[in-house]
């Protein structure tokens, strides 16, 4: 037998240059396809036409278009129109210009320059589309590719499904690496794998996992039930079965019921942890409060406006400011620049409170002087008090107890007190009474001293 012949059951095929010889079993009516005599009949005539290279038995050609061309054995039930070709398999068709089916069963390459390497029930209808194998695939996009698997589709330009099951790519230049039930509809979108993931936004990525969605442009989602709904959002979802969604653009989200650990290069112990209860630890793996920092030091540059203490030696906060002034500002809501300010100025070596009343719930024990400003240089229109004795006779000194239960925020003491009633004193000496920002009155007892001094002097003069 000719060494180029291959036997398929009772069929034998011979591939020769520059002619094709296809042999049929027990055939006595034959015709050679090629450059030999086109009117030769009988087995010997067929052999003579091919210079005895094939031996007896040839299958009559079905199309005159094959004359002078070289094609492999087309298989049973396959159809193609040159220059398209079906190399083998069964019931496959290559109908697109220069399309090709390598083998398999019931594959159809209808797109121009489309290719199906094998598998079954695959369709390559897009220009330059390709299916490498597997079954029930549909590559309809221009220059789209399906590597294998089952029931995958590529409908967008330059799209790819590497494998897996039930994946669909429709976005321009988008890709699915594998998995099942995934969709990539955004331009340049990518799904690495997993199941039931969607990359919808342009340049969006789903790394893998299950039930993740990357909807925003340039967004990223991975894990389980991660929903990156905003542009530039990053969402990593843990295994818990609830949706973890982004809330703003360019936001970084990590959902981890078991906590978060962060390591520096070469570390075996994390530098920072977020515990399952939400506590944050720096320098400790088991934070016991909302924020626990072990061995803490901080220096905020370039202004060097804040220095923090070291828990290993001493603790404290140092506030440093430019131009010999350091401020601590307090604000609530939309009060503007600040609601109250604690200021230190080195030129005067004074610490003062601005924009608020200063209240102390408790005792003050001073080893220095607590006094009011009294320098003559600050004053004008200075006059002596008149009628001080009458004013003293008009005021009432009282004993009283604080209403501690009605005003718990003031932290009043339980002991009995002596003093004045501010509203009564206001009628006689308004200069020693003031009203706070909260609407309540208070008395400057120190200002009563000059009144008492002058009252005594009047008594001595009247004696």
Sequence-ordered SSE layout with sheet pairings:
Layout: E1 6-8, E2 11-15, E3 20-23, H1 42-49, E4 79-80, E5 85-86, E6 93-94, E7 100-101, E8 108-109, E9 115-116, E10 123-124, E11 130-131, E12 138-139, E13 145-146, E14 153-154, E15 160-161, E16 168-169, E17 175-176, E18 183-184, E19 190-191, E20 198-199, E21 205-206, E22 213-214, E23 220-223, E24 226-228, E25 234-237, E26 244-245, E27 252-254, E28 260-262, E29 272-274, E30 280-282, E31 291-293, E32 298-299, E33 306-310, E34 314-319, E35 325-330, E36 340-345, E37 350-354, H2 388-394, E38 398-400, E39 417-419, H3 422-428, E40 433-435, E41 441-443, H4 448-462
Parallel strand pairs: 4-6, 5-7, 6-8, 7-9, 8-10, 9-11, 10-12, 11-13, 12-14, 13-15, 14-16, 15-17, 16-18, 17-19, 18-20, 19-21, 20-22, 21-23, 22-24, 23-25, 24-26, 25-27, 30-31
Antiparallel strand pairs: 1-2, 2-3, 28-29, 29-30, 32-33, 33-34, 35-36, 36-37, 38-39, 40-41
Mean pLDDT: 80
Estimated share of beta-strand residues: 25-35%
Query: Radius of gyration over alpha carbons?
Result: 47 Å
Number of strands: 41
Q: Fraction of residues in helices?
A: under 10%
What strand order characterises the main sheet? Answer: 4-6-8-10-12-14-16-18-20-22-24-26
Query: Quick one: overall form?
Result: rod-shaped
Number of helices: 4
Major sheet: 12 strands, parallel
Give the end-to-end Cα distance, rounded to a whole number of Å: 157 Å
Which secondary-structure class do the elements indicate? mainly beta
The unreliable regions are: 1-72
């Amino acid at each position: 037998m000719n060494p180029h012949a291959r036997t398929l059951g009772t069929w034998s095929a011979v591939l020769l240059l520059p002619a094709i010889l296809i042999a049929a079993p027990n055939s006595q009516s034959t015709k050679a396809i090629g450059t030999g005599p086109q009117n030769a009949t009988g087995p010997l005539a067929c052999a003579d036409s091919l210079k005895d290279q094939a031996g007896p038995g040839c299958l009559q050609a079905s199309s005159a278009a094959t004359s002078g061309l070289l094609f492999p054995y087309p298989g049973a039930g396959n159809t193609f129109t040159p220059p398209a070709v079906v190399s083998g398999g069964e019931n496959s068709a290559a109908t697109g210009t220069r399309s090709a089916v390598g083998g398999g069963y019931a594959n159809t390459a209808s797109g121009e320059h489309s290719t199906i390497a094998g598998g079954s029930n695959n369709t390559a209808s897009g220009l330059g589309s390709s299916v490498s194998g597997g079954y029930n695939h549909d590559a309809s996009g221009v220059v789209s590719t399906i590597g294998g698997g089952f029931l995958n589709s590529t409908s967008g330009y330059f799209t790819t499904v590497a494998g897996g099951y039930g994946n669909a790519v429709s976005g321009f230049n988008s890709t699915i690496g594998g998995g099942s039930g995934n969709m990539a509809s955004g331009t340049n979108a990518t799904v690495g794998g997993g199941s039931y993931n969607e990359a919808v936004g342009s340049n969006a990525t789903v790394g893998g996992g299950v039930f993740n969605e990357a909807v925003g442009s340039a967004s990223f989602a991975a894990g389980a039930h991660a929903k990156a709904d905003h542009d530039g959002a990053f969402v990593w979802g843990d295994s818990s079965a609830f949706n973890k969604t982004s809330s703003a653009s360019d936001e970084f989200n990590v959902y981890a019921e078991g906590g978060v650990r962060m390591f520096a290069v070469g570390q075996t112990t994390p530098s920072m942890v977020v515990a399952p209860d939400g506590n944050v630890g720096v320098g400790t793996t088991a934070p016991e409060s909302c924020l626990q920092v072990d061995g803490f030091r901080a220096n905020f540059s370039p202004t060097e406006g804040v220095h923090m203490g070291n828990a290993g030696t001493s603790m404290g906060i140092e506030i440093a400011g430019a131009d010999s002034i350091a401020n601590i500002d307090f604000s609530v809501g939309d009060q503007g620049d600040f609601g109250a300010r604690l200021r230190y100025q080195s030129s005067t070596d004074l610490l003062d409170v601005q924009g608020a009343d200063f209240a102390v719930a408790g005792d003050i024990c001073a080893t220095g002087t607590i006094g009011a400003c009294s320098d003559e240089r600050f004053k004008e229109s200075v006059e002596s008090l008149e009628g001080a004795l009458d004013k003293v006779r008009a005021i009432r000194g009282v004993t009283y107890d604080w209403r501690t239960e009605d005003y718990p925020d003031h932290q009043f003491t339980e002991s009995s007190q002596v003093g004045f009633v501010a509203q009564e004193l206001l009628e006689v000496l308004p200069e020693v009474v003031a009203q706070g920002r909260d609407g309540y009155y208070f008395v400057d007892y120190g200002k009563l001293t000059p009144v008492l001094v002058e009252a005594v002097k009047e008594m001595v003069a009247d004696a």
